[in-house]
Design a protein that fits this description.
The protein has 395 residues and is of the alpha/beta class. The protein folds into 2 domains: 18-45 and 286-393, Aspartate Aminotransferase, domain 1, CATH 3.90.1150; 61-284, 3-Layer(aba) Sandwich (Aspartate Aminotransferase, domain 2), CATH 3.40.640.10. Helices cover 42% and strands 14% of the residues. The longest helix has 28 residues, at 285-312.
């Protein structure tokens, strides 16, 4: 039986929402449907809010720690969703995925070291490397008919003695790949042979569409576990990014100690009360039902967009993603300049979207849109896009 209704449109304005209340600052106008920031327009589930409400009834919000029940909730989630067994001693903390990457960067590499990324990819990876005075190295994904693959031959060619790590998006943002085990195994084999650490951003792990599955990189072999730092979070899944709570899995004892030393140096180990309470409530049987239902709803949103574009705007190339609630639209058929494409979506379509160029090499000519919103808003967005294309280019 379906328990949750995701059709409800929630007014998020005037809540200090980055997605809604900063839209004029970012795009120059506020009359857009915001489909840019990767958070959802669905209510944070009631079992999380209820747990937080229960905690706030206690009148003291002092220093706290994460209890074993918190670790058990994470272990339950990893086991039941991904068949991945971890020990409590292998779990540690980060306020967010990007901050976790930053601490991994400073813990395991030195200024001047090379760190590889695979663009087009989540753009904070670039600043995480460059702002820490590491050398950014690209291993661009290959693409055929909008199907993206890792370029293992090029990866082997670009690795040298200065290369210390690679940051992986698994599942991949923005192209929507849920990497298969054989692909991850090839990656691990190359990295293990060359002494390269894998920093794996797995924040979108819960948004994978059947028959595809999320496979944590560290879960595939002993070698993978030895060299992987996995960063995950309930934030995307349960729309609770404002609680600034992520977790890190490190199964190599030496690497865990190095990461925790970095974490403690920034006095970030403690976290916050409501992030702990919210995460523990999320990773539960109630959370599992909620995720199953919301993934189904988003999958239907994606099918709607894919079918609408195929039928009404076939010039746009769009392959259904295997994972995430983000769509990667190839707009190259219209021959926009990068600025022209951005202006078109802002001023003609009236959608706030992410420009593909910010995701690095391979992103020019694309836009990323977020369809984790009510079906009515998705339909309105597609209608706006169709009308704007017809007015600009004719039927």
């Amino acid at each position: 039986m379906i328990k949750y209704n995701f059709d409800n449109i929630v007014d998020r304005k005037n809540t200090n929402s980055v997605k809604y209340d900063l839209i004029k600052e970012v795009f120059g106008t506020d009359d857009l449907i915001p489909m840019w920031v990767a958070d959802m327009d669905f209510n944070t589930p009631p079992f999380i809010l209820n747990a937080m409400e229960k905690r706030i009834k206690h009148p003291i919000l002092g220093y706290n720690f994460r209890p074993e029940s918190y670790n058990n909730a994470i272990k339950y989630w990893l086991k039941t969703r991904y068949d991945w067994d971890v020990d409590s001693a292998q779990l540690t903390f980060s306020p967010g995925v990007v901050s976790g990457l930053m601490m991994a960067m400073t813990a395991f590499t030195n200024p001047g070291d090379k760190v590889i990324v695979q663009p087009p990819v989540y753009f904070p990876f670039f600043t995480t490397i460059k702002e820490n005075k590491r050398k950014l190295v690209y291993n661009p994904l290959t693409v055929n008919n909008e199907f993206y693959s890792m370029d293992f031959d090029n990866l082997k060619d670009i690795i040298d003695n200065e290369t210390k790590a690679i940051i992986i998006s698994n599942p991949h943002n923005p192209v929507g790949r849920a990497w298969k085990k054989y692909e991850l195994q090839q990656l691990v084999d190359i990295c293990y042979t060359h002494g390269i650490l894998i920093f794996s951003d797995e924040i979108h792990s819960d948004f994978v569409f059947s028959p595809h599955k999320h496979i944590p990189i560290a879960s595939i072999s002993i070698k993978a576990a030895e060299i992987t730092i996995t960063i995950m979070a309930p934030s995307k899944t349960f729309n609770m990014a404002g609680l600034s709570t992520s977790f890190v899995v490190i199964q190599n004892d030496k690497n865990l100690k190095r990461y925790n030393k970095e974490l403690e140096a920034y006095h970030l180990l403690q976290g916050n009360i409501f992030g702990t309470v919210g995460a523990e409530a999320a990773y539960s049987q109630e959370g599992a039902q909620w995720v199953d239902e919301i993934v189904s709803y988003i999958d239907e949103n994606i099918d709607y967009v894919v079918n609408f574009i195929s039928t009404n705007i076939p010039q746009i190339e769009l392959r259904k993603p295997e994972a995430t609630y983000l769509l990667w639209l190839n707009m190259k058929a219209f021959n926009f300049t990068s600025k022209g494409l951005s202006d078109f979506f802002t001023n003609k379509v009236k959608l706030g979207v992410n420009k593909g160029v910010i995701f690095g090499p391979g992103g020019d000519g694309y836009v990323r849109i977020n369809v984790a919103t009510s079906r009515a808003i998705v339909k309105e967005a597609m209608l706006r896009l169709k009308i704007a294309i017809e007015l600009e280019f004719g039927n």
